[in-house]
Design brief:
The protein is of the alpha/beta class. The protein has one domain: Phosphotransferase system, mannose-type IIA component (Rossmann fold). It is built from five helices and four strands. It has helices spanning 13-25, 43-57, 73-80, 95-103, 109-122; strands spanning 4-10, 32-37, 63-67, 87-91. The chain has a four-stranded parallel β-sheet with strand order 2-1-3-4, sandwiched between helices. Helix 1 crosses helix 4 and helix 4 (95-103) packs antiparallel against helix 5. The chain is globular.
């Protein structure tokens, strides 16, 4: 078994992140569902769809929800799903975070949540002409 992964984002973001991760990593064992929320969507109908996605990916080891912008509709829908202690949410999803989650899918929910957060933060690096070496990793 493993932790299920649910991405809830604005339109176009989840698909793009998953397409890129697929090309980078090839195959992975994580059960994933993506839910992209149109700007004019009914939040109640999206929440029901998200609940169904959780049922589909739940293998008994918990669910990690990744959303894009904290405080936005996708994030708020994700927060409304935190009805069980084995569902965690991280807002601010980026490609480094997603790749880290997929590379460490054997971790338990608590460990994977930490890996996701640190992966997202560690993937943010300021580069400028004085710090060019930082960009050549």
């Amino acid at each position: 078994m493993s932790v299920g992964l649910l991405l809830i984002t604005h339109t176009g973001i989840a698909k793009s992140l998953l397409d890129t991760a697929d090309k980078m990593l090839g195959t992975y064992s994580t059960k994933i569902k993506a839910l992209e929320v149109p700007l004019d969507a009914s939040t109640e109908s999206i929440k029901i769809l998200a609940q169904n996605h959780i049922k589909d990916i739940d293998q008994g080891d918990g669910i990690l929800i990744l959303t894009d912008l904290y405080g936005s509709t996708p994030s708020n829908i994700g927060c409304s799903l935190l009805e069980r202690p084995d569902i965690h949410l991280i807002a601010g999803v980026n490609l480094p975070m997603l790749v880290r989650v997929l590379n460490y899918s054997d971790l338990n929910l608590d460990e994977l949540t930490v890996k996701a957060e640190t992966g997202g933060k560690d993937g943010i690096i300021q580069c400028d002409c004085e710090n060019k070496k930082q960009c050549q990793k």
